[in-house]
């Protein structure tokens, strides 16, 4: 157990105020920075080298931020102007690595929060990847394939000059899946005249993509939840689970839950949620969401009597043993957490990035619920992206079983690291502190070794 010198805490509080001042109107970034800095006091007190002036200050300032115009004509010839972003946050451990998000809610603050989280997440994987994130306020919903292609081509026409297999390696996130990565890769190849497979991850399996990459974030989160339950002498078998979202992360979370004998009974989108007494039929969900690009109410219509669509409802009101928020940031607030606790939830594991608000996290932890923060629990996606980069570099591709074994080993190791680190710093069972400190130690050591840059 380490005691914290009051001056460390004061210095961190002062830095947080400064972050809020220097980055106005970026509430999500403030939230992500606060959540990390508030847990660092014990490690800064215990390891004086980390308290070196400038180290934490450098960590919260992106190495580079790019904002650019993305004009594109729609199918009727009308020109739209979106804004593109790439925040290259920290490259102490490897090339910047992190997804691209295409969603109307995207702004610089959202991308900075995601990039900041990515630094620690990527460090926790133990692989050689730095942290970055990008995206656009473009809304792919309701757009034709041709429109999405023109947008992606325009986006890449600027982005290409900032990325590269040794520099910065984007991938998918909300609104960016295999289709978008294909169009982005095509345009990069055309502009640069290089077959540089390692410049993007999440590629199609036939042209440089890794098997299990589409499944990796969801599968990894379920493995993390299972590891937290194992720590308490339980497993996922027979547990009722609620999952929010219905995109890539939610779908493969549901698939893995079923494989491990759990019963996932929900999925959702921005219009409401579905509760399915018989358990979600993942093949039907894939058909509706991935093939038809439809909404979850269609799933309920087709599924028949066991499923019900609740328009505008909060999925967290459905009683469950385990909850896996897999939609978006701040989707689970204190009221939702209270409902989960009332219904006897044992574990909450974040498939999305920062889905639980700080109040919700606090409430869950106070109630003794095992809580897996996204930067640990959903690291399986980016970890398999790094394995995709390794395969691209070696000009080879691994069988699915090999990738899945490596993913399982990485998730076990992240769980152990977070658990042991939390215990070492006097907060056993607190995966938030464990993840933040363990990720920080790895990045900070590399930054110290590489000098003031
Ligand atoms: N967008 C994913 C994440 O939040 C994956 C990033 C990647 O594969 O680079 O971690």
Task: Label this structure with key terms.
alpha/beta; Glu/Leu/Phe/Val_DH_AS; Glu/Leu/Phe/Val/Trp_DH_C; 48% helix; five-stranded mixed beta sheet; binds glutamic acid; Rossmann fold; single chain; Glutamate dehydrogenase; 13 strands; five-stranded parallel beta sheet
Number of domains: 3
Which fold name corresponds to the CATH topology of the largest domain?
Answer: Rossmann fold
Q: Mean pLDDT, rounded to whole units?
A: 97
CATH H level, superfamily name of the largest domain = NAD(P)-binding Rossmann-like Domain
Name the strands of the widest sheet in spatial order.
Answer: 1-2-4-3-5
Topology:
Elements: H1 6-22, H2 27-46, H3 55-59, E1 64-73, E2 79-90, E3 96-102, H4 108-124, E4 130-136, H5 145-159, E5 168-171, H6 178-192, H7 213-231, E6 240-243, H8 248-259, E7 263-264, E8 266-269, E9 272-276, H9 282-291, H10 296-303, E10 307-311, E11 322-324, H11 334-342, E12 347-349, H12 358-366, E13 370-372, H13 374-377, H14 380-393, H15 400-424, H16 431-449
Parallel strand pairs: 3-4, 3-5, 6-7, 6-11, 11-12, 12-13
Antiparallel strand pairs: 1-2, 2-4, 8-9, 9-10
Glutamic acid (GLU) is lined by residues 97-99, 171, 173, 201, 353, 381-382, 385.
Question: Care to describe what's here?
Answer:
There is one protein chain. With 453 residues, the protein is of the alpha/beta class. The protein folds into three domains: 6-60, no CATH class; 64-195, Rossmann fold (3-Layer(aba) Sandwich), CATH 3.40.50.10860; 216-377, Rossmann fold (3-Layer(aba) Sandwich), CATH 3.40.50. Helices cover 48% and strands 15% of the residues. The protein has helices at 6-22, 27-46, 55-59, 108-124, 145-159, 178-192, 213-231, 248-259, 282-291, 296-303, 334-342, 358-366, 374-377, 380-393, 400-424, 431-449, and strands spanning 64-73, 79-90, 96-102, 130-136, 168-171, 240-243, 263-264, 266-269, 272-276, 307-311, 322-324, 347-349, 370-372. The strands form three sheets. Strands 1-2-4-3-5 form a five-stranded mixed beta sheet. The chain has a five-stranded parallel beta sheet with strand order 7-6-11-12-13, with helices on both faces. Helix 11 links the parallel strand 11 and strand 12 (347-349). The longest helix is centred in the C-terminal third of the chain and has 25 residues, at 400-424. It starts with 5 loop residues before the first helix and ends with a helix. The protein binds glutamic acid (GLU). Glutamic acid (GLU) is lined by residues 97-99, 171, 173, 201, 353, 381-382, 385. Homohexamer. It comes from Streptomyces parvulus. This is Glutamate dehydrogenase. Belongs to the Glu/Leu/Phe/Val dehydrogenases family. GO terms for molecular function: glutamate dehydrogenase (NADP+) activity.
């Amino acid at each position: 157990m380490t005691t914290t010198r009051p001056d460390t805490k004061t210095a961190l509080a002062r830095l947080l105020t400064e972050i809020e001042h220097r980055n106005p109107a970026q509430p999500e970034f403030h939230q992500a920075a606060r959540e990390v800095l508030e847990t660092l006091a014990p490690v800064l007190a215990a390891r004086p080298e980390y308290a070196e002036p400038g180290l934490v200050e450098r960590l919260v300032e992106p190495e580079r931020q790019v904002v650019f115009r993305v004009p594109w004509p729609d199918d009727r010839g009308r020109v739209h102007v979106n804004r593109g972003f790439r925040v290259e946050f920290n490259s102490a451990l490897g090339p910047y690595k992190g997804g691209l998000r295409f969603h109307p809610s995207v702004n610089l603050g959202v991308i900075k929060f995601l990039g900041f989280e990515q630094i620690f997440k990527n460090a926790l994987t133990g692989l050689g990847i730095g942290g970055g994130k990008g995206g656009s306020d473009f809304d792919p919903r309701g757009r034709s394939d041709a429109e999405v292609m023109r947008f992606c081509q325009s986006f890449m026409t600027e982005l290409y000059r900032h990325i590269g297999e040794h520099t910065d390696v984007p991938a998918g996130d909300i609104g960016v899946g295999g289709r978008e990565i294909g169009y982005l890769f095509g345009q990069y190849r055309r502009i640069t005249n290089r077959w540089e497979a390692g410049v993007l991850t999440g590629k199609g399996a036939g042209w440089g993509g890794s098997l299990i990459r589409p499944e990796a974030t969801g599968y990894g989160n379920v493995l993390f939840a299972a590891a937290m339950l194992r720590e308490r002498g339980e497993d996922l078998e027979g547990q009722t689970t609620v999952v929010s979202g219905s995109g890539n992360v939610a779908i493969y979370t549901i698939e893995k839950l079923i494989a491990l004998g759990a019963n996932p009974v929900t999925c959702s989108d921005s219009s409401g949620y579905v509760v399915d007494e018989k358990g979600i039929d993942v093949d039907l969900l894939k058909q509706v969401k991935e093939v038809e690009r439809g909404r979850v109410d269609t799933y309920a219509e087709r599924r028949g009597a066991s499923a019900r669509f609740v328009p505008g409802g909060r999925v967290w009101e459905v009683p469950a043993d385990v909850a896996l928020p897999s939609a978006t940031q701040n989707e689970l607030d204190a009221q939702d957490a209270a409902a989960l606790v009332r219904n006897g939830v044992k574990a909450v594991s974040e498939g999305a990035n920062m889905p639980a608000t700080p109040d919700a996290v606090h409430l869950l932890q106070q109630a003794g619920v095992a809580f897996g923060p996204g930067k640990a629990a959903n690291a399986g996606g980016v970890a398999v992206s790094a394995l995709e980069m390794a395969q691209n570099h070696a000009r080879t591709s691994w069988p699915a079983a090999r990738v899945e074994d490596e993913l399982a080993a990485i998730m076990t190791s992240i769980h152990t690291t977070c658990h042991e680190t939390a215990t070492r710093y006097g907060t056993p069972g607190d995966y938030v502190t464990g993840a933040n400190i363990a990720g920080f130690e790895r990045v900070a050591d590399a930054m110290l070794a590489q000098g003031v840059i």
